[in-house]
């Protein structure tokens, strides 16, 4: 089996930075998983004593809290600050940006529109910075149902696809007087997506390595499926199914922004051994 | 010959307003033609003594100057104000708006991008309000040649087509960090375009009545041609060619925003008499 890696794949700047912070801050707590990759979260717990806590109420005085890459709601951060805990912010700077934009623009009287998934931690965090009720839409169809004002500010979840953002933006431009559009899609995400798109055209089977709750990993799978119907998402080498490779010659591999190299290497080795 | 008029056609709000002003301000001068319709300009001269002057230098003290619907460059207006002339502003409020936006946004440090035709008086006027060098593009191809900054503000010539504005906007959103997009396309233009599009699907031959230098009239012709290859632009009934109607049953008529009803009526009568 010939293996081709995507030109760009795996860890982005924000994830690398967060993991370095976690490795340096032994025995700390992250509020929600630091990144969307359960295997890497386990490794941090086993090797560095970094535990995950879901609820701010459970954090005791004297503890050291790391803010996850996706950020947390403003209220949770404010609550933590009232406690006697040390806080280290590992929010990706590309996520801090839409938080700041949403706060400033809502104060300036712009109606906030967020293109993203309401249930995703990043979006929950960004929403919480709006001083007015933001509109969150994950598709153009949802936007068409919403009542929008004359002056809007649009931000995007960092891991969304640019062509979908443009659909949303085009609707707003033709339905508002002023559309203030902030392209907060992360370049690393775009680069990984572009590389996955190219590679998926050249291969017989495509493996996307990443967490099943990772938004950008799911996007990579969707993009791969557009060109290669034999595309599969695996969290690690144990998820590989030998039948996927029967009669195939070239296998492409890409990985989400929160997938560590050590997992990608194991997946590669197992496929190579076929 | 059955005749069908477009649902919406002809005079827009800004043109109606300008003509009312001109009729009330007898023996005045307009700097450039008040509207883009030579026949109506002649009528205003013959009946109300309203003359056209192309050069501010030619305007003598004591005269009454009307600013045309498309507006004039800021420098020309300032020069006029230094003279002993009375000024009445008939600039369409939908054109004043992009002038104001361009002035304010350029002062705020946004790079100004104008979607429009460099040689059109409206665009020349809007350009002149930018405190920095604006980029004027009439197509996506032209935009791709330009060096654009991180923060841009986009306005449109009022008579442009929305789908072309969206192409320009989409490029900017994916190439800038912040795109501040002002949809300055005039609704009357959009309504006339939409009506022309619908009507051109139902007829055998389509007549667009309007000035040959009128931007919105030319757009109507382009839209009509997309659905009806037998579409023609006429300034008045004398431009009609009988051969266009041979073997045809239904004729559609639309008219540019600066075409008066009295010209449309004459065109209609002549076609009806066939």
Automatic annotation (TrEMBL), chains A, B:
(2E)-4-hydroxy-3-methylbut-2-enyl diphosphate binds at residues 36, 70, 120, 158, 214-216, 258. The active site is at 122 (proton donor). Keywords: 4Fe-4S, Iron, Iron-sulfur, Isoprene biosynthesis, Metal-binding, Oxidoreductase. One of its GO terms (molecular function) is metal ion binding. Its cofactor is [4Fe-4S] cluster. Pathway: Isoprenoid biosynthesis; isopentenyl diphosphate biosynthesis via DXP pathway; isopentenyl diphosphate from 1-deoxy-D-xylulose 5-phosphate: step 6/6; Isoprenoid biosynthesis; dimethylallyl diphosphate biosynthesis; dimethylallyl diphosphate from (2E)-4-hydroxy-3-methylbutenyl diphosphate: step 1/1. Dimethylallyl diphosphate binds at residues 36, 70, 120, 214-216, 258. It is an enzyme of class 1 (oxidoreductase). Its EC number is 1.17.7.4. Binds 1 [4Fe-4S] cluster per subunit. Isopentenyl diphosphate binds at residues 36, 70, 120, 214-216, 258. [4Fe-4S] cluster binds at residues 12, 92, 186. The keyword Cytoplasm does not apply. It comes from the Bacteria. Pfam families: LYTB. The keyword Iron applies. HAMAP family: IspH. NCBIfam families: ispH_lytB (TIGR00216), PRK01045.1-1 (NF002187). Catalyzes the conversion of 1-hydroxy-2-methyl-2-(E)-butenyl 4-diphosphate (HMBPP) into a mixture of isopentenyl diphosphate (IPP) and dimethylallyl diphosphate (DMAPP). Acts in the terminal step of the DOXP/MEP pathway for isoprenoid precursor biosynthesis. This is 4-hydroxy-3-methylbut-2-enyl diphosphate reductase.
